[in-house]
Write a structure and sequence with these properties.
- The protein has 237 residues and is α/β, with parallel strands linked by helices.
- The chain has one domain: Rossmann fold, CATH 3.40.50.
- The protein is built from eight helices and six strands.
- It has helices at 4-16, 43-58, 60-66, 98-110, 122-133, 158-164, 184-192, 209-222; strands at residues 27-36, 72-80, 86-94, 141-148, 170-177, 200-203.
- Strand 4 (141-148), helix 6 (158-164) and strand 5 form a beta-alpha-beta unit.
C-alpha cells in the first residue's frame, strides 16, 4: 500500500491534469511518450524533437484522430536519459477538446532541455513507463512510445526490465533515430518493441524526426491493423 502522501500526490496529479476519475468507460488509448534527452541529444537536436512533437500534435489529421468520437485518448510525456533520471513533463491528461490538446503543445514547447548530459538508461526509462501506466485510466489500449538514438549503456538492461516487470497488456513502440549509432533500428526491432501490434518508425537523421513522429502517432491513434505482423516480445517465443 503506498504511503498516504503518495496517494494524495497521485490524486492531486490526476485532478490537476483533468482526470477527475481514474476510470474512463470510453477511453480507447493511454499513450505515454518517452523522449530521449541523453548526452547525444544536443541543443539543436532537442529543438528538432520538441518542435517536431508540437507540430505533430498540431497536425490536422492527428487532431482529428485524437478527438474522434469513438473514445477518449489520454496522454503523458516524460523525458529520460541516465539511470534514475526520468522527468514527467506532462502528467496524464484527457485530450477531450482542442483546448486540452493546445495546452499539451504549449507544455512541450515551453519545457527547457535539462542541463545535465547523461547516459542512455533505456531499461530504466521503460520501467518508469511501466509504473506510469499504473496511474493511467483504464483504457482499451496502453502504449509506451519510446524514441531514442542509442542502445542502453547504463543501468538495468532492456531485456532484464522485461524479465522483471509485468508488461502484460502494454505495447511498446519505438522511434529509432539513426544518426549517432549504427544498428539502432535493428536494436529497437529486436530488443525494445513488444506487445500487440508493436512497431518501429525510423528517422535516419534527426531532421527526419518530425515526419517520423507524425507517422508514429497516426499509427498509434489508428490502432493495430488486423492481420499485421506483430513483433514478438522476449518471452513470446
Amino acid at each position: 500500500m503506498p504511503p498516504l502522501a503518495d496517494l494524495l500526490r497521485r490524486a492531486a496529479l490526476g485532478l490537476g491534469a483533468g482526470l477527475a476519475t481514474p476510470v474512463l468507460a470510453d477511453c480507447r488509448l493511454a499513450l505515454a511518450l518517452a523522449v530521449d534527452i541523453s548526452r547525444s541529444i544536443d541543443s539543436q537536436d532537442y529543438i528538432i524533437q520538441t518542435e517536431g512533437l508540437a507540430l505533430a500534435l498540431e497536425d490536422r489529421e492527428i487532431r482529428r484522430a485524437i478527438l474522434a468520437a469513438d473514445g477518449e485518448v489520454v496522454l503523458a510525456v516524460y523525458y529520460w536519459s541516465g539511470r534514475g533520471y526520468q522527468d514527467l513533463v506532462q502528467p496524464w491528461v484527457r485530450l477531450d477538446s482542442p483546448e486540452a490538446l493546445d495546452r499539451v503543445i504549449w507544455t512541450v514547447r515551453r519545457t527547457p532541455r535539462p542541463p545535465a548530459r547523461l547516459a542512455t538508461a533505456l531499461g530504466d526509462a521503460l520501467r518508469y513507463g511501466r509504473a506510469l501506466m499504473d496511474d493511467a485510466p483504464d483504457c482499451d489500449r496502453r502504449v509506451i512510445d519510446v524514441a531514442g538514438d542509442g542502445q542502453n549503456n547504463e543501468g538495468i538492461s532492456v531485456a532484464r526490465t522485461y524479465e522483471r516487470e509485468d508488461f502484460t497488456g502494454i505495447t511498446v513502440n519505438g522511434l529509432a533515430v539513426g544518426e549517432h549509432e549504427a544498428g539502432i533500428l535493428d536494436y529497437y526491432r529486436t530488443e525494445v518493441i513488444r506487445g500487440p501490434g508493436a512497431f518501429v518508425e525510423s528517422a535516419p537523421m534527426q531532421t527526419d524526426y518530425p515526419a517520423a513522429i507524425r507517422r508514429k502517432l497516426l499509427r498509434e491513434l489508428q490502432g493495430p491493423v488486423i492481420g499485421a505482423l506483430i513483433a514478438p516480445g522476449p518471452d513470446d517465443g
